[in-house]
Write a structure and sequence with these properties.
Layout lengths: L2 H7 L8 H13 L1 H8 L9 E5 L9 H18 L6 E6 L5 H14 L3 E5 L5 H10 L4 E5 L8 E7 L10 H10 L15 E4 L1 H15 L11 E4 L9 H7 L5 E3 L25 H10 L3 E5 L6 E6 L5 E3 L2 H19 L5 E6 L5 H9 L2 E5 L3 H10 L4 E7 L3 E4 L8 H17 L4 H12 L1 E10 L2 H17 L4 E2 L2 E8 L4 E4 L5 E3 L8 E5 L4 E6 L5 E10 L7 H18 L4
Helix pairs in contact: 1-3, 4-5, 4-7, 6-8, 8-9, 8-14, 11-12, 11-14, 11-15
């Protein structure tokens, strides 16, 4: 008997409920391929949590896989805080089953004698991160699969600082979970330990967002915003934050305002995808709006579209918005006077322009692995340094440290402050970005994501990365490869001189080529989706803002050449 069938039959015991057993029996009789996909492996609790397709099975998100996570986390919390009354806070997004899964998670905590603060309705991920510290909790959970397709859900774990779990907690929690069997889950909740929360935490979060994202921008009355929550949670926070900050000319896309885990009006609820903002951009053109803002389901990512020099609404990428937001924050600090301990942050696959920006302002730019948990860890690891702001290419940004994860709520307000102020000064968000290119170099990036689903897809992704490493290219777009950075071995090697450097970051499945002219190509598997991602970054100088379109076209052509050479187009 195959291993997956044995595993499936182990779910026919009394540990599991009747409907679960019935579904498995049906699959055994009628759909062995589907059964295999559900049971051929355990859906892994990774270094930040778990994300996957919902359904019955070990390779799915369900009450048992999440219950096992929660039991393991409960065991770990009780070991670490054995002399304390442990408290956790739980939030959930708009996805199908998020509310019932959140209640199950709350019940397991409560069954283990842990006090639970459970949001009464869906809330944003940044609100959860904020609530961990606001309520003095030991941990936090958010049920979300971010921008994944409708069939997905997920489980992210936050620690006492409000940031996602990082070493050593992540490894210790994973070990606790892996030591458990499904029969070890305690579902018998002490309901008196579960307390619903809403208005008080909402008010504190919204007020703090307004405080951190407001900079007395001029021109708010003359600034038109179109906002879409893409059926997600940001509808609970962003409209109110904008209103309290003085933005009264906000048009909400009503067709996408109601939370809906099926995301009926978009192919993908991902603001990185231009298609997701189609309705909002159309409305912006109709009413002559200055800016479009769209957020993903749990409101940690934001997409911004603004008018380009030709007057057309254009979607910016995460690197572009990150640069202008960071520069604006640095300008504000500079006016007050730098203390000398400030730093900004980014990731290894985001634009190198962040480092150029830091040099210009005389502050440090710390670079982490992909994922905001690492930026949150920086804040914890360097308590004597002052985090100004930072982000990553995947449409995430964090303003200050009151939230310890990417935060589309406060970042939306910051973007509006920048754009309204620029318009009042007879400029624009886009024109200010071009000015940055003239000052620090015109950096342009491109992301290519290749989806490979299922067991065979995982093997294909693994092989593509092996090929990328074992068959290195000698040059990219006419420039010799100088450095190969292998984050799996923690070694960066200069191919020309033979010099080797140690990469002082945790090991990760990432490989980066860098050429003599500063072009970078990175490859990594997605940590949350069945995808392999390739990140292209190239740069040149912009001698005058009037030459922007010409120089940009040259850079775009170079990116096209790179994609053709690497067979990624």
């Amino acid at each position: 008997m195959s291993t997956f069938l044995l595993t499936a039959k182990s779910w026919l015991t009394d540990t599991f409920d009747t409907s679960t057993k019935s579904e498995i029996e049906n699959l055994i009789q009628n759909d062995q391929e589907e059964l295999k996909d559900r049971f051929y492996k355990n859906l892994e609790f990774g270094t930040g949590g778990m994300r996957g397709v919902m359904g019955v099975g070990t390779n799915r998100i369900n009450k048992y896989t999440l219950g096992k996570n929660t039991q393991g986390l409960s065991n770990y919390l009780k070991k670490v805080y054995s002399n304390e009354d442990i408290k956790v806070v739980i939030a959930y997004d708009c996805r199908n089953n998020s509310d019932t899964l959140a209640k199950t998670v709350a019940e397991v905590f409560a069954a283990n004698g842990i006090k639970v603060f459970l949001f009464s309705e869906l809330r944003t991920t940044p609100a959860l991160s904020f609530a961990v510290k606001h309520l003095n909790c030991h941990a936090g959970i958010v049920l979300t699969a971010s921008h994944n397709p409708p069939e997905y859900n997920g489980y992210k774990v936050y620690w006492t600082d409000g940031g996602q779990i990082v070493p050593p907690e992540d490894g210790a929690i994973i070990a606790e979970i892996n030591n458990l069997e499904f029969k070890d889950i305690n579902f018998n909740a002490d309901e008196s330990l579960i307390e619903l929360i809403d208005t008080e935490v909402d008010e504190a979060f919204i007020n703090t967002s307004v405080k951190n994202g407001s900079f007395n921008a001029k021109g708010k009355d003359d600034f038109k915003i179109v906002f879409t929550s893409l059926h997600g949670t940001s509808i609970t926070a962003i409209p109110e934050v904008l209103k309290r900050a003085g933005y009264n000319n906000v048009t909400i896309i009503e067709e996408q305002a109601k939370p809906d885990g099926n995301f009926p009006t978009v192919v993908s609820p991902n603001p990185e995808e231009p298609e997701a903002l189609t309705l909002a951009i159309k409305k912006a053109e109709e009413i002559g709006a200055d800016m479009v803002v769209g957020t993903d389901p749990d409101s940690d990512r934001l997409g911004i579209a603004v008018r380009n020099p030709e007057g057309k609404i254009e979607l910016l990428n995460g690197n572009q918005t990150m640069i202008l937001m960071t520069k604006f924050l640095l300008d504000q600090r500079k006016q007050k006077g730098f203390k000398g301990n400030e730093f900004i942050a980014s990731t290894i696959v985001s634009t190198p322009m962040m480092s150029q920006l830091a040099k210009a302002y005389g502050v440090e730019c710390k670079t982490s692995l992909t994922g905001f948990k690492w930026i949150g860890k920086m804040i914890k690891d360097f308590p004597n340094q002052d985090f100004v702001g930072g982000g990553e290419e995947s449409f995430g940004f964090m303003v200050g440290d009151f939230v310890r994860d990417k935060d589309a709520v406060t970042s939306t307000l910051l973007a509006c402050e920048i754009a309204a102020n620029a318009k009042a000064n007879e400029s624009s968000f886009y024109k200010d970005l071009i000015a940055c290119y003239a000052d620090y170099g015109l950096y342009k990036e491109k992301l290519i994501s290749i989806t490979k689903k299922g067991m065979s897809g995982a093997e294909e992704i693994k092989q593509m990365l092996i090929d990328f490493k074992e068959n290195p290219v000698a040059s990219i777009a006419g420039s010799k490869v100088k450095w190969i950075e292998d984050y799996n071995t923690s070694i960066a090697k200069n191919i020309i001189s033979g010099e080797e450097k140690t990469i002082d970051l945790p090991k990760s499945n990432v490989l980066i080529y860098e050429t003599e002219d500063g072009t970078r190509v990175a490859a990594r598997p997605s940590g949350t989706e069945p995808k392999i991602k390739f990140y292209i970054s190239t740069n040149t100088t912009l001698d005058n803002v009037s030459n922007f379109k010409t120089i940009e076209a040259q850079v775009d052509a170079k990116i096209d050449t790179i994609l053709a050479e690497l067979k990624l187009n």
